Amino acid sequence: MILIHKNLFLKSLFSISLLLSVLTWNCGKNNGSIGSSEKIVLTSFYPMYIAALNVTENIPGIRLVNMAAPSSGCLHDYQLTTSDAALLEKASVLIVNGGGMESFLEKAVSLNRKLMVIDASEEIEFIRGTGDDHNHSHHHNHKDKNDGSMDDDAEVNSHVWLSIGNYIQQVMTVAKHLSAWDRVNSAGYAKNAQMFADSLQEFKAEADKKLSDISNRKIAIFHEGFAYFAQEFGLTVAAVIEREVGVEPNAAEIISTVRTIKKAGVKALFTEPQYTSAAARTISAETGLPLFTLDPVVSGSMTKDAYITAMEKNIETVKKALK
Question: What is the pTM of this model?
């Protein structure tokens, strides 16, 4: 009897061990778990992930992870989570937009002193302007200090990825730093980046043609994010509805915006899907101008062509609104 129990016990133990081995193998194969030889490349949020996804395609030994959920939108007030902290401790590289977009950056770096941070906007000239200055297209930052830092006389508009030309520059900057960090695969990063940049350049040329015959180019935007888009395609931002992110304009500001829109002869009002604004609807009703929606490309599908797909829709929307 004791021998039978012992045999049953050994058989059960063997079965459990075999089951655990199979489960472990399957989990490691299917759930994208981090292998011991993989290096984690983190991106701060959606547009940086799409850029890095293209640059790192088919590069061996790289695990690309997007830190902020795609539904997070812009990172103005983003707070690091415990899972973010765990990722940051293991990561080798963190790719950020820069320009003050990632307010948590200092804390993130403190969690991993060996972490290499790639500022994708390091070579981009930022638009600068205060919340009261609607015509952002004429206010730029010049990195003319010896240390490359920026003057503090105006707020920095960090939504640089909404210019296709800027996004191309971000892609190339990411590739440059990844190539220096991982020299074995430098040719792969460079090739991938150039292919994506060529696609973006081709798309930009097509977009320029589509918008070339627009006569009235005066627009009002929900907040300053689309100033880069407007600048790139020769649109004039006559008014910004939400002058401070997350803060609805008061009655006096709405009245002032309505007057500005009417005086400037604005053709269309543009909002964003991530934000609902009673103020925008009120301004639309007071001016008689319809509302159109532009995608700031801060959320969407996690696919290589997601940026171009979103911007294609934006071009079509602008063409329809200003025809």
Answer: 0.82
195-229 residue pLDDT tens: 999 999 999 999 999 999 999 999 999 888 899 99
CA–CA separation, 120 vs 96, rounded Å? Answer: 6
Nearest to 223 by CA among 254, 246, 252: 246
Predicted local distance difference test score (pLDDT) of residue 155: 82
Burial tier of 212 (Cβ tally within 10 Å: 0-12, 13-18, 19+): exposed
Q: Among candidates 52, 95, 102, 105, which has minimal Cα distance to 74?
A: 102
Encoded tokens for 68 = 């902020």
Half-sphere exposure of 138 (CA within 13 A, CB side): 6
Q: Are 307 and 314 in contact (CB under 8 A)?
A: no
Please name every residue paired with 39 in a beta bridge, in sequence order, or none if there are none: 62
Question: Longest Cα pair distance anywhere in the chain, in angstroms?
Answer: 98
DSSP 121-182: TTTPPPEE--TT---GGG-B----STT----SSS-EE--GGGSHHHHHHHHHHHHHHHHHH-
Measured at the CA of 62, the angle between CA 80 and CA 111, to 5 degrees, comes to 30
Alpha carbon distance 147, 192 (integer Å): 31
* Contact between 127 and 227 (Cβ < 8 Å): yes
C-alpha to C-alpha distances, 224 to 257, 306, 318, nearest whole angstrom: 14, 22, 16
* % of residues, the chain, pLDDT over 90: 63
Q: Residue with structure tokens 């007030």?
A: 77
In angstroms, rounded to a whole number, what is the distance separating the alpha carbons of residues 218 and 225?
16
Task: Round to whole Å and give the CA distance between 79 and 15.
Answer: 45
How buried is residue 256: exposed, middle or buried, by Cβ count under 10 Å (0-12/13-18/19+)? middle
Q: Under a CB-based contact definition with an 8 Å cutoff, are residues 75 and 68 in contact? A: yes
Rounded CA-CA distance 315/301 in Å is 19
Cα separation, 290 vs 264, whole angstroms: 16
CA–CA distances in Å: residue 159 to residues 128, 232, 269: 11, 13, 19
